[in-house]
Amino acid sequence: MLAGISLGIIVIIIIIGIIRPKINLGFLAIGSAFAIGIWLMGSSDKELVKLFPASLFLMLTAMTYLFSLANENKTLQQLTDRMVMFVHGKPFLLPLMFFGMSVLLSAAGPGNIAAVALLAPIGMMMAYQTKQSLLLMAIMICTGANAGAFSPIAPTGVVAAGILQQINMNQANLPWVIFLAAAAIQSITAIAAFIVFTIVTKKRGQSTAAEKVTPTVLVLQPLQRNQVLTLLFLLLMLLCILVLKLPLVLAASMAFIPIVILDLADSEVAIKKMPWDAILLVTGVSLLVGLLEKSGAIDLATRMVVSISHPSYINAVLAFITGVISAYSSSSGVVLPTFLPLVPKIIEQLGGGDSYRMAIAIAVGSHMVDVSPLSTLGAICISSVPAISALRNKLFRQLMIWGLAMAGVGAFLSYVLLDLTY
Protein backbone atom coordinates (compact mmCIF):
# COMPACT_ATOMS: atom_id res chain seq x y z
CA MET A 1 0.00 0.00 0.00
CA LEU A 2 2.73 2.44 1.04
CA ALA A 3 4.84 1.55 -2.00
CA GLY A 4 1.87 2.16 -4.28
CA ILE A 5 1.15 5.54 -2.67
CA SER A 6 4.81 6.56 -3.07
CA LEU A 7 4.81 5.60 -6.74
CA GLY A 8 1.57 7.50 -7.28
CA ILE A 9 2.93 10.67 -5.69
CA ILE A 10 6.06 10.77 -7.84
CA VAL A 11 3.92 10.20 -10.96
CA ILE A 12 1.73 13.15 -9.93
CA ILE A 13 4.79 15.34 -9.41
CA ILE A 14 6.12 14.40 -12.85
CA ILE A 15 2.77 15.27 -14.44
CA ILE A 16 2.71 18.62 -12.63
CA GLY A 17 6.19 19.34 -13.96
CA ILE A 18 5.03 18.69 -17.51
CA ILE A 19 1.84 20.79 -17.41
CA ARG A 20 3.11 23.53 -15.02
CA PRO A 21 6.73 24.11 -16.08
CA LYS A 22 7.15 27.27 -13.98
CA ILE A 23 6.81 25.30 -10.75
CA ASN A 24 10.11 24.07 -9.34
CA LEU A 25 9.52 20.39 -8.68
CA GLY A 26 12.36 20.33 -6.17
CA PHE A 27 10.20 22.11 -3.59
CA LEU A 28 7.25 19.79 -4.29
CA ALA A 29 9.48 16.73 -4.03
CA ILE A 30 11.01 17.82 -0.72
CA GLY A 31 7.60 18.63 0.77
CA SER A 32 6.15 15.33 -0.45
CA ALA A 33 9.10 13.36 0.90
CA PHE A 34 8.72 14.84 4.37
CA ALA A 35 4.94 14.35 4.31
CA ILE A 36 5.22 10.68 3.30
CA GLY A 37 8.16 10.02 5.61
CA ILE A 38 6.71 11.59 8.74
CA TRP A 39 2.98 10.91 8.39
CA LEU A 40 2.96 7.55 6.59
CA MET A 41 6.30 5.93 7.43
CA GLY A 42 6.88 7.32 10.91
CA SER A 43 10.35 8.57 10.03
CA SER A 44 11.96 11.44 11.90
CA ASP A 45 13.10 14.62 10.22
CA LYS A 46 16.72 13.63 10.94
CA GLU A 47 16.25 10.34 9.09
CA LEU A 48 14.80 12.18 6.11
CA VAL A 49 17.62 14.71 6.04
CA LYS A 50 20.07 11.79 5.76
CA LEU A 51 18.38 10.85 2.47
CA PHE A 52 19.31 14.22 0.96
CA PRO A 53 21.84 13.54 -1.85
CA ALA A 54 24.70 15.58 -0.41
CA SER A 55 27.27 14.07 -2.79
CA LEU A 56 25.14 14.93 -5.82
CA PHE A 57 24.58 18.46 -4.50
CA LEU A 58 28.31 19.00 -4.00
CA MET A 59 29.16 17.58 -7.42
CA LEU A 60 26.60 19.76 -9.21
CA THR A 61 27.62 22.84 -7.24
CA ALA A 62 31.35 22.36 -7.79
CA MET A 63 31.08 21.61 -11.50
CA THR A 64 28.56 24.33 -12.31
CA TYR A 65 30.56 26.90 -10.33
CA LEU A 66 33.74 26.02 -12.21
CA PHE A 67 32.12 26.28 -15.61
CA SER A 68 30.19 29.37 -14.58
CA LEU A 69 33.57 30.99 -13.93
CA ALA A 70 34.83 29.78 -17.30
CA ASN A 71 31.72 31.14 -18.95
CA GLU A 72 31.91 34.50 -17.18
CA ASN A 73 35.41 35.25 -18.52
CA LYS A 74 34.47 34.05 -22.04
CA THR A 75 36.71 30.96 -21.96
CA LEU A 76 33.83 28.70 -23.02
CA GLN A 77 33.04 31.11 -25.85
CA GLN A 78 36.60 30.73 -27.10
CA LEU A 79 36.28 26.94 -26.96
CA THR A 80 33.00 27.14 -28.85
CA ASP A 81 34.48 29.23 -31.64
CA ARG A 82 37.42 26.89 -32.13
CA MET A 83 35.34 23.72 -32.12
CA VAL A 84 32.95 25.22 -34.66
CA MET A 85 35.98 25.94 -36.83
CA PHE A 86 37.11 22.35 -36.26
CA VAL A 87 33.92 21.08 -37.91
CA HIS A 88 34.54 23.51 -40.77
CA GLY A 89 31.81 25.95 -39.85
CA LYS A 90 29.11 23.27 -39.77
CA PRO A 91 27.81 23.39 -36.21
CA PHE A 92 25.16 20.74 -36.87
CA LEU A 93 28.04 18.23 -36.66
CA LEU A 94 28.86 19.27 -33.09
CA PRO A 95 26.40 16.79 -31.47
CA LEU A 96 28.05 13.91 -33.35
CA MET A 97 31.48 15.06 -32.23
CA PHE A 98 30.35 15.27 -28.62
CA PHE A 99 28.76 11.83 -28.89
CA GLY A 100 32.09 10.35 -29.94
CA MET A 101 34.00 12.16 -27.20
CA SER A 102 31.44 11.08 -24.62
CA VAL A 103 31.72 7.40 -25.61
CA LEU A 104 35.51 7.44 -25.46
CA LEU A 105 35.72 9.38 -22.21
CA SER A 106 33.14 7.22 -20.45
CA ALA A 107 34.68 3.94 -21.63
CA ALA A 108 38.22 5.04 -20.76
CA GLY A 109 37.51 4.70 -17.06
CA PRO A 110 35.82 7.79 -15.59
CA GLY A 111 32.35 6.45 -16.41
CA ASN A 112 29.14 8.03 -17.65
CA ILE A 113 28.57 10.58 -14.88
CA ALA A 114 32.11 11.95 -15.09
CA ALA A 115 31.94 12.10 -18.90
CA VAL A 116 28.70 14.08 -18.85
CA ALA A 117 29.92 16.32 -16.03
CA LEU A 118 32.99 17.21 -18.10
CA LEU A 119 31.35 17.58 -21.52
CA ALA A 120 27.84 18.89 -20.84
CA PRO A 121 28.82 22.40 -19.68
CA ILE A 122 30.82 22.95 -22.86
CA GLY A 123 28.48 21.07 -25.20
CA MET A 124 25.27 22.70 -23.99
CA MET A 125 26.86 26.15 -24.17
CA MET A 126 28.04 25.44 -27.72
CA ALA A 127 24.59 24.24 -28.75
CA TYR A 128 23.06 27.42 -27.35
CA GLN A 129 25.58 29.76 -28.95
CA THR A 130 25.40 28.09 -32.37
CA LYS A 131 21.58 27.80 -32.23
CA GLN A 132 21.58 24.01 -32.31
CA SER A 133 19.01 21.87 -30.52
CA LEU A 134 19.72 21.73 -26.80
CA LEU A 135 17.68 18.53 -26.64
CA LEU A 136 19.76 16.83 -29.33
CA MET A 137 23.03 17.85 -27.68
CA ALA A 138 21.84 16.50 -24.32
CA ILE A 139 20.72 13.25 -25.96
CA MET A 140 24.01 12.76 -27.77
CA ILE A 141 26.19 13.50 -24.74
CA CYS A 142 24.16 11.32 -22.33
CA THR A 143 23.66 8.48 -24.80
CA GLY A 144 27.35 8.51 -25.68
CA ALA A 145 28.26 8.34 -22.00
CA ASN A 146 25.90 5.41 -21.49
CA ALA A 147 27.30 3.68 -24.59
CA GLY A 148 30.66 3.56 -22.83
CA ALA A 149 29.29 3.01 -19.33
CA PHE A 150 29.61 -0.79 -19.34
CA SER A 151 33.27 -0.79 -20.29
CA PRO A 152 34.99 -3.36 -18.03
CA ILE A 153 37.14 -0.58 -16.57
CA ALA A 154 34.32 1.96 -16.06
CA PRO A 155 32.49 2.12 -12.69
CA THR A 156 29.17 0.78 -14.02
CA GLY A 157 30.93 -2.03 -15.86
CA VAL A 158 32.81 -2.95 -12.70
CA VAL A 159 29.57 -2.96 -10.69
CA ALA A 160 27.82 -5.17 -13.25
CA ALA A 161 30.73 -7.62 -13.45
CA GLY A 162 30.90 -7.88 -9.66
CA ILE A 163 27.18 -8.62 -9.35
CA LEU A 164 27.31 -11.22 -12.11
CA GLN A 165 30.22 -12.97 -10.41
CA GLN A 166 28.18 -13.20 -7.21
CA ILE A 167 25.52 -15.22 -9.06
CA ASN A 168 28.17 -17.42 -10.72
CA MET A 169 27.93 -15.72 -14.12
CA ASN A 170 31.70 -15.29 -14.20
CA GLN A 171 32.54 -16.12 -17.81
CA ALA A 172 35.63 -14.14 -18.83
CA ASN A 173 34.05 -12.64 -21.95
CA LEU A 174 30.69 -11.70 -20.39
CA PRO A 175 31.65 -8.12 -19.36
CA TRP A 176 32.86 -7.43 -22.89
CA VAL A 177 29.74 -8.96 -24.44
CA ILE A 178 27.50 -6.75 -22.30
CA PHE A 179 29.64 -3.67 -22.99
CA LEU A 180 29.68 -4.09 -26.77
CA ALA A 181 26.00 -5.03 -27.00
CA ALA A 182 24.89 -2.12 -24.82
CA ALA A 183 27.16 0.28 -26.70
CA ALA A 184 25.74 -0.87 -30.05
CA ILE A 185 22.12 -0.43 -28.97
CA GLN A 186 22.82 2.98 -27.40
CA SER A 187 24.60 4.05 -30.59
CA ILE A 188 21.59 3.05 -32.68
CA THR A 189 19.34 5.39 -30.72
CA ALA A 190 21.88 8.24 -30.87
CA ILE A 191 22.34 7.98 -34.64
CA ALA A 192 18.58 7.71 -35.13
CA ALA A 193 18.07 10.82 -32.99
CA PHE A 194 20.66 12.76 -34.98
CA ILE A 195 19.07 11.78 -38.30
CA VAL A 196 15.55 12.61 -37.12
CA PHE A 197 16.55 15.98 -35.70
CA THR A 198 18.49 16.85 -38.86
CA ILE A 199 15.52 15.99 -41.09
CA VAL A 200 13.07 17.90 -38.90
CA THR A 201 15.35 20.93 -38.84
CA LYS A 202 15.63 20.97 -42.63
CA LYS A 203 11.88 20.56 -43.08
CA ARG A 204 11.31 23.58 -40.87
CA GLY A 205 13.49 25.58 -43.19
CA GLN A 206 16.27 26.06 -40.69
CA SER A 207 19.74 25.93 -42.17
CA THR A 208 22.24 23.48 -40.76
CA ALA A 209 25.11 24.82 -42.80
CA ALA A 210 27.77 27.29 -41.90
CA GLU A 211 25.50 30.24 -42.47
CA LYS A 212 23.55 29.13 -39.40
CA VAL A 213 26.30 30.77 -37.38
CA THR A 214 26.83 34.48 -37.62
CA PRO A 215 30.11 35.47 -39.25
CA THR A 216 31.45 36.92 -35.99
CA VAL A 217 31.31 33.49 -34.35
CA LEU A 218 33.67 32.08 -36.97
CA VAL A 219 36.25 34.84 -36.49
CA LEU A 220 38.67 33.60 -33.86
CA GLN A 221 39.70 36.12 -31.23
CA PRO A 222 43.10 35.79 -29.53
CA LEU A 223 43.06 34.14 -26.13
CA GLN A 224 43.55 36.48 -23.19
CA ARG A 225 45.85 35.67 -20.28
CA ASN A 226 42.98 34.84 -17.92
CA GLN A 227 41.42 32.56 -20.53
CA VAL A 228 44.67 30.66 -21.13
CA LEU A 229 45.08 30.10 -17.40
CA THR A 230 41.44 29.03 -17.06
CA LEU A 231 41.95 26.47 -19.83
CA LEU A 232 45.05 25.17 -18.06
CA PHE A 233 43.11 24.73 -14.84
CA LEU A 234 40.32 22.94 -16.73
CA LEU A 235 42.97 20.64 -18.20
CA LEU A 236 44.34 20.11 -14.69
CA MET A 237 40.88 19.00 -13.55
CA LEU A 238 40.63 16.58 -16.47
CA LEU A 239 44.02 15.04 -15.66
CA CYS A 240 43.13 14.73 -11.98
CA ILE A 241 40.02 12.75 -12.91
CA LEU A 242 41.47 10.59 -15.68
CA VAL A 243 44.99 9.95 -14.37
CA LEU A 244 44.87 10.44 -10.61
CA LYS A 245 41.29 9.12 -10.30
CA LEU A 246 40.34 11.94 -7.93
CA PRO A 247 36.67 12.55 -7.07
CA LEU A 248 34.87 15.10 -9.24
CA VAL A 249 34.35 17.57 -6.39
CA LEU A 250 38.02 17.57 -5.39
CA ALA A 251 39.20 17.85 -9.00
CA ALA A 252 36.82 20.73 -9.70
CA SER A 253 37.91 22.47 -6.49
CA MET A 254 41.55 22.23 -7.54
CA ALA A 255 40.56 24.13 -10.67
CA PHE A 256 38.17 26.80 -9.41
CA ILE A 257 40.11 27.75 -6.25
CA PRO A 258 43.13 29.14 -8.16
CA ILE A 259 40.81 30.76 -10.71
CA VAL A 260 39.12 32.66 -7.88
CA ILE A 261 42.34 33.47 -5.98
CA LEU A 262 44.05 34.76 -9.13
CA ASP A 263 40.93 36.76 -10.00
CA LEU A 264 40.70 35.23 -13.47
CA ALA A 265 36.91 35.68 -13.46
CA ASP A 266 34.32 37.61 -11.47
CA SER A 267 33.36 35.05 -8.81
CA GLU A 268 30.35 37.02 -7.55
CA VAL A 269 28.81 37.15 -11.02
CA ALA A 270 29.61 33.47 -11.55
CA ILE A 271 27.81 32.50 -8.34
CA LYS A 272 24.74 34.52 -9.29
CA LYS A 273 24.63 32.85 -12.71
CA MET A 274 24.83 29.33 -11.34
CA PRO A 275 21.70 27.24 -12.06
CA TRP A 276 20.45 27.12 -8.48
CA ASP A 277 16.91 26.31 -9.62
CA ALA A 278 18.14 23.23 -11.49
CA ILE A 279 20.30 22.13 -8.55
CA LEU A 280 17.30 22.39 -6.21
CA LEU A 281 15.16 20.48 -8.70
CA VAL A 282 17.58 17.59 -8.99
CA THR A 283 18.43 17.24 -5.30
CA GLY A 284 14.80 17.61 -4.23
CA VAL A 285 13.62 14.88 -6.58
CA SER A 286 16.56 12.68 -5.53
CA LEU A 287 15.45 13.02 -1.90
CA LEU A 288 11.97 11.79 -2.84
CA VAL A 289 13.47 8.95 -4.88
CA GLY A 290 15.53 7.86 -1.87
CA LEU A 291 12.37 7.67 0.19
CA LEU A 292 10.68 5.79 -2.66
CA GLU A 293 13.30 3.07 -2.46
CA LYS A 294 12.92 2.91 1.32
CA SER A 295 9.14 2.50 1.03
CA GLY A 296 9.52 -0.77 -0.88
CA ALA A 297 8.41 0.50 -4.29
CA ILE A 298 11.42 -1.13 -5.96
CA ASP A 299 10.64 -4.50 -4.38
CA LEU A 300 7.03 -4.19 -5.50
CA ALA A 301 8.11 -3.66 -9.09
CA THR A 302 10.57 -6.54 -8.90
CA ARG A 303 7.90 -9.04 -7.83
CA MET A 304 5.81 -8.08 -10.83
CA VAL A 305 8.45 -9.10 -13.38
CA VAL A 306 7.92 -12.85 -13.43
CA SER A 307 4.12 -12.55 -13.24
CA ILE A 308 3.93 -10.76 -16.61
CA SER A 309 6.79 -12.50 -18.42
CA HIS A 310 7.16 -15.30 -20.96
CA PRO A 311 10.36 -16.82 -22.41
CA SER A 312 9.49 -15.49 -25.87
CA TYR A 313 9.59 -11.85 -24.77
CA ILE A 314 11.30 -11.86 -21.37
CA ASN A 315 14.13 -9.58 -22.54
CA ALA A 316 11.69 -6.93 -23.72
CA VAL A 317 9.87 -7.08 -20.37
CA LEU A 318 13.12 -6.79 -18.41
CA ALA A 319 14.29 -3.84 -20.52
CA PHE A 320 10.98 -2.03 -20.11
CA ILE A 321 10.61 -2.55 -16.35
CA THR A 322 14.23 -1.69 -15.58
CA GLY A 323 13.84 1.38 -17.79
CA VAL A 324 10.74 2.61 -15.98
CA ILE A 325 12.29 2.06 -12.55
CA SER A 326 15.60 3.58 -13.60
CA ALA A 327 13.76 6.76 -14.59
CA TYR A 328 13.36 7.59 -10.91
CA SER A 329 16.09 5.48 -9.33
CA SER A 330 19.82 4.89 -9.57
CA SER A 331 20.70 2.69 -12.55
CA SER A 332 23.94 1.25 -11.22
CA GLY A 333 23.19 1.73 -7.52
CA VAL A 334 19.66 0.27 -7.41
CA VAL A 335 18.45 -1.26 -10.67
CA LEU A 336 21.49 -3.39 -11.55
CA PRO A 337 21.93 -4.80 -8.01
CA THR A 338 18.19 -5.49 -7.86
CA PHE A 339 17.58 -7.14 -11.23
CA LEU A 340 20.82 -8.86 -12.23
CA PRO A 341 20.63 -11.30 -9.28
CA LEU A 342 17.11 -12.23 -10.43
CA VAL A 343 18.34 -13.68 -13.75
CA PRO A 344 18.89 -17.29 -12.56
CA LYS A 345 15.56 -17.31 -10.68
CA ILE A 346 13.67 -15.92 -13.67
CA ILE A 347 15.14 -18.58 -15.96
CA GLU A 348 14.22 -21.26 -13.43
CA GLN A 349 10.63 -20.07 -12.95
CA LEU A 350 10.00 -19.40 -16.64
CA GLY A 351 11.56 -22.67 -17.70
CA GLY A 352 13.73 -21.00 -20.32
CA GLY A 353 15.77 -17.98 -21.31
CA ASP A 354 19.36 -16.97 -21.93
CA SER A 355 21.34 -15.44 -19.07
CA TYR A 356 23.61 -13.42 -21.39
CA ARG A 357 20.67 -11.84 -23.19
CA MET A 358 18.83 -11.09 -19.96
CA ALA A 359 21.91 -9.36 -18.55
CA ILE A 360 22.19 -7.29 -21.74
CA ALA A 361 18.48 -6.39 -21.60
CA ILE A 362 18.83 -5.22 -18.00
CA ALA A 363 21.95 -3.22 -18.87
CA VAL A 364 20.27 -1.56 -21.85
CA GLY A 365 16.93 -0.94 -20.16
CA SER A 366 18.43 0.53 -17.01
CA HIS A 367 20.51 3.08 -18.92
CA MET A 368 18.40 3.96 -21.97
CA VAL A 369 16.24 6.30 -19.88
CA ASP A 370 19.16 8.04 -18.20
CA VAL A 371 18.65 11.09 -20.40
CA SER A 372 15.66 11.82 -18.15
CA PRO A 373 16.04 14.96 -16.00
CA LEU A 374 15.35 12.76 -12.97
CA SER A 375 18.66 11.03 -13.64
CA THR A 376 22.04 12.51 -12.80
CA LEU A 377 23.04 12.73 -16.47
CA GLY A 378 19.94 14.60 -17.58
CA ALA A 379 20.17 16.82 -14.52
CA ILE A 380 23.73 17.83 -15.35
CA CYS A 381 22.66 18.78 -18.88
CA ILE A 382 19.82 20.94 -17.55
CA SER A 383 22.12 22.62 -15.05
CA SER A 384 24.53 23.36 -17.93
CA VAL A 385 21.96 25.33 -19.93
CA PRO A 386 22.52 29.12 -19.91
CA ALA A 387 20.69 30.97 -17.14
CA ILE A 388 17.39 31.34 -18.97
CA SER A 389 14.61 29.67 -16.99
CA ALA A 390 12.35 29.23 -20.03
CA LEU A 391 15.04 27.19 -21.80
CA ARG A 392 15.60 24.99 -18.76
CA ASN A 393 11.90 24.41 -18.23
CA LYS A 394 11.44 23.48 -21.89
CA LEU A 395 14.43 21.15 -21.84
CA PHE A 396 13.17 19.55 -18.61
CA ARG A 397 9.87 18.63 -20.29
CA GLN A 398 11.59 17.44 -23.46
CA LEU A 399 14.09 15.25 -21.62
CA MET A 400 11.32 13.84 -19.43
CA ILE A 401 9.31 12.79 -22.48
CA TRP A 402 12.37 11.47 -24.32
CA GLY A 403 13.69 9.61 -21.29
CA LEU A 404 10.40 7.85 -20.53
CA ALA A 405 9.94 7.06 -24.22
CA MET A 406 13.32 5.31 -24.16
CA ALA A 407 11.85 2.68 -21.84
CA GLY A 408 9.62 1.64 -24.74
CA VAL A 409 12.40 1.99 -27.31
CA GLY A 410 14.75 -0.10 -25.19
CA ALA A 411 12.08 -2.78 -24.84
CA PHE A 412 11.44 -2.78 -28.60
CA LEU A 413 15.13 -3.05 -29.49
CA SER A 414 15.62 -5.78 -26.89
CA TYR A 415 12.71 -7.71 -28.35
CA VAL A 416 14.01 -7.40 -31.91
CA LEU A 417 17.68 -7.99 -31.17
CA LEU A 418 17.50 -10.33 -28.17
CA ASP A 419 14.14 -12.13 -28.19
CA LEU A 420 13.45 -12.69 -31.88
CA THR A 421 17.01 -13.88 -32.54
CA TYR A 422 17.00 -16.38 -29.65
Features:
73% helix, mainly alpha, 422 residues, 21 helices, globular, 0% strand
Largest sheet: none
Number of helices: 21
Oligomer: single chain
Share of β-strand residues: under 5%
Radius of gyration: 22 Å
Distance between the termini: 38 Å
Low-confidence stretches: 207-217
The number of domains: 1
Q: Which structural category do the helix and sheet elements fall into? A: mainly alpha
Helix percent reads over 70%
Task: Indicate the overall shape.
Answer: globular
Order of helices and strands: HHHHHHHHHHHHHHHHHHHHH
Mean pLDDT: 84
Number of separate strands: 0
Describe the structure.
This protein has 422 residues and is an all-alpha fold. The chain has one domain (53-274, 296-419). Helix content is 73%, strand content 0%. The longest helix is centred in the C-terminal third of the chain and has 31 residues, at 389-419. The chain is globular, with a radius of gyration of 22 Å. The model is unreliable at 207-217 (pLDDT under 50).
